[in-house]
TrEMBL record:
Organism: uncultured Chloroflexota bacterium
Residues reported in the UniProt entry to bind GTP: 167-172, 186-192, 211-214
Keyword set, alphabetical order: Cytoplasm, GTP-binding, Hydrolase, Magnesium, Metal-binding, Nucleotide-binding, Potassium, tRNA processing
Gene Ontology cellular component annotations, sorted alphabetically: cytosol
Positions with a binding annotation for K(+): N167, T186, I188, T191
Localization annotation: Cytoplasm
Binding-site residues, Mg(2+): S171, T192
EC number: 3.6.-.-
Name the record gives this protein: tRNA modification GTPase MnmE
Co-factor binding comment: Binds 1 potassium ion per subunit.
First-level EC class: hydrolase
NCBIfam families: mnmE_trmE_thdF (TIGR00450), small_GTP (TIGR00231)
Gene that produces this protein: mnmE
Domain of life, per lineage: Bacteria
């Protein structure tokens, strides 16, 4: 059928920790199908999603955080996101979490000793050293959680909506950022009738940038549909860039759009939730056409969205684009340093990990409060076990079959 290369890897030095045989053929679809048919006929079966990495986890070759990093590396959309996944695959997060577990286990062991030997008049350990250990553990958890927002943005990306009045230069700006003629640009206002989305690497952040139809009142049914889709894109965006045509004075349409953006920000803050990966109410003002005599000052443009960054650009000349990329990235991160800013730093990038760490943090706080109040050791130990179980969910030291199925079900075939 074909001439193949056979690679035999003895346990435990294979990826899964088992004896593994790999067959490498020339790669034609017909050849692959025939090889698969013959393998199944001989007793093999197709692998389940994530089965190889699951076997590596069960064999102890990888812990759970490292296993999850495999799929993050496969799905990484920017070099920075890939770097983040590779560092987690190297065990950095796992080591940090296990360091916290060691602190808590030491406290738990001392308290359990007083319970186990209560009839032998074993004195209770003084609470102060134990409280210091709990404070160290909580501080370590806080340090990890401080990276979670930026880490999740690097992993999952952000959505950015370019909004503005017709002919403000949104499509030209999209083309300039992409460095390609993705959107049709004409001097005729209202050329863009639908939302155009493209992926972009925004200083390491995976981003989807949407060029929207100019938002204005119209009796044209097609244009009205485009405006409705534009408003939906604004609602779904993590960051909104309000594009202002600096070559003409501000108009009522600019103020109306700014009001819509402000209302969106207020809704997000009132709801107490984050929109997508980034700051729900995040927005900037882009003063476009700076190559022409400006009729709008940066201060005037900034008054549309008080507190928002203002960036002057020329989509046509290409000036100010680096400043715009930087402003968008900073706004998406809400002023926090990018997760890839310090190479080798331990970063929490998964919402699942963040949830587990937050539960661990609350449990440690409860344990410290109970210890400080001199409550019975059983109460403190119960809180510590809750914290340890939550931390174990990150590394896989305490995990259910349902959780494993959920995690490895996200993998593609062959990983």
């Amino acid at each position: 059928m074909d001439e193949v290369l056979l690679a035999y890897m003895r346990a435990p030095r294979s990826y899964t920790g088992e004896d593994v045989v790999e067959l490498h053929c020339h790669g034609s679809r017909a050849g692959l199908r025939e090889m698969l048919r013959l393998a199944v006929h001989a007793g093999a079966r197709p692998a389940e999603r994530g089965e190889f990495t699951l076997r590596a986890f069960l064999a102890g070759r990888l812990d759970l955080a490292q296993a999850e990093a495999v799929v993050d590396a496969v799905q990484a959309r920017t070099p920075a996101a890939l770097s983040l996944a590779v560092e987690q695959l190297g065990g950095g997060l796992s080591a940090a979490v296990r360091a916290v577990r060691r602190e808590l286990l030491e406290v738990l062991a001392q308290l359990e000793a007083t319970i186990d030997f209560s009839e032998d008049d074993v004195p209770d350990p003084p609470p102060e050293p134990l409280l210091e250990q709990l404070a160290r553990g909580r501080a370590q958890i806080d340090g990890l959680l401080a990276t979670a927002r930026a880490g999740q943005i690097m992993r999952e990306g952000v959505r950015i909506a370019l909004v503005g009045r017709p002919n403000a230069g949104k499509s030209s700006l999209l083309n300039a950022l992409l460095q390609s003629e993705r959107a049709i640009v004409t001097p005729i206002a209202g050329t863009t009738r639908d939302v155009i989305e493209e992926a972009i690497d925004l200083e390491g952040i995976p981003a989807v940038i949407a060029d929207t139809a100019g938002i204005s009142e119209s009796h044209d049914p097609i244009e009205r549909l485009g405006v409705a889709r534009s408003r939906a894109a604004v609602t779904a965006a993590d960051v909104v860039a309000l594009i202002v045509d600096g070559s003409v004075p501000l108009a009522a349409g600019d103020s109306a759009l700014a009001s819509e953006v402000r209302r969106r920000s207020t809704r997000d803050m009132d709801g107490g939730e984050e929109a997508g990966a980034a700051n729900g109410g995040a927005a900037i003002v882009v003063l476009n056409k700076s190559d022409l005599p400006l009729c709008v000052s940066p201060t005037e443009a900034g008054s549309l969205l008080p507190g928002a960054a203002v960036v002057a650009v020329s989509a046509l000349a290409g000036s100010g684009l680096d400043d715009l990329r930087h402003a968008l990235a900073r706004t998406a991160l809400a002023g926090q340093p990018a997760a890839h800013a310090t190479h080798g730093a331990t970063v929490v990038a998964s919402a699942r990990h963040r949830d587990a760490l937050e539960r661990a943090r609350h449990a440690v706080a409860d344990a410290a409060a109970a210890l400080a109040e001199r409550r019975v050791a059983d109460v403190v130990c119960t809180d510590l076990r809750v914290a340890l179980n939550a931390l174990g969910e990150v590394t896989g030291d305490s995990v259910t079959e349902a959780l494993l199925s959920e995690i490895f079900g996200r993998f593609c075939i062959g990983k």
